[in-house]
Amino acid sequence: MPADRQTDPDAPLTDPSGPDLAGLSASIDRLTDHAHDWSTQRLLDEGLDLVRDACWADAAALFRVGARRAAAVHARPSVRSRRTRPGGVCAPVPDAVDTGWFPWGLAPLAADRFVLIDDARALPADPDGARTLGELGVRSCLHLPLRQRGRTVGALQVFWSEPRLAWDDDRGRLLRTLGRFLLTCDGRVRT
């Protein structure tokens, strides 16, 4: 569990490898119920915090993917620093990258569902290759492409400071639905 998260000492511990899909689904429903009451910024914050909580992750980022570019929409924690926070993970959020590079130089994989990388420390954090994910405190990362009508419209990226060896894509299916909803909310501001 990330060091910057507060926990209730009386709350029962939950196994992060065992999904609570009903709880995650209910949380997503509660979030979508606030779509008209909350600002887009709050929806993005709460949505990416929900992604982080559901994955027991240190950081998460949302990207919009177009024909040639992938652009960062939002990240939590929202850090655009060139330095790693002490003891924390910085989500690498380049403003926009060519889709041939995205994600992390692994474009030939063209994942439809997900890419989980256990040891991502040596992967580039941005196209210029000046920083690696390891320099940002990242050990493992997950790329969840967001697809609509047979094409990739966005992506959720999740980052851990500890090794992550397995991924339950039942959880990923719900998170991809949430990611598409967040892109829609962000899109209503842009139009």
Brief description of this entry?
27% of the residues lie in helices and 21% in strands.
Layout of helices and strands:
Layout: H1 21-33, H2 40-55, E1 59-65, E2 69-76, E3 96-98, E4 115-117, E5 140-148, E6 151-160, H3 169-190
Antiparallel strand pairs: 1-2, 1-6, 2-3, 4-5, 5-6
Known CATH architecture: 2-Layer Sandwich
The number of distinct β-strands equals: 6
Q: Report the radius of gyration as a whole number of Å.
A: 16 Å
**Strand-residue proportion:** 15-25%
How do the strands of the widest beta sheet line up side by side? 3-2-1-6-5-4
What does this structure look like?
With 191 residues, the protein is α+β, with helices and mostly antiparallel strands. The protein has one domain: GAF domain (Beta-Lactamase). The protein contains three helices and six strands, in the order ααββββββα. Strands 3-2-1-6-5-4 form a six-stranded antiparallel β-sheet. The chain starts with 20 loop residues before the first helix and ends with a helix.
Keywords:
191 residues, alpha+beta, Beta-Lactamase, 6-stranded antiparallel sheet, 27% helix
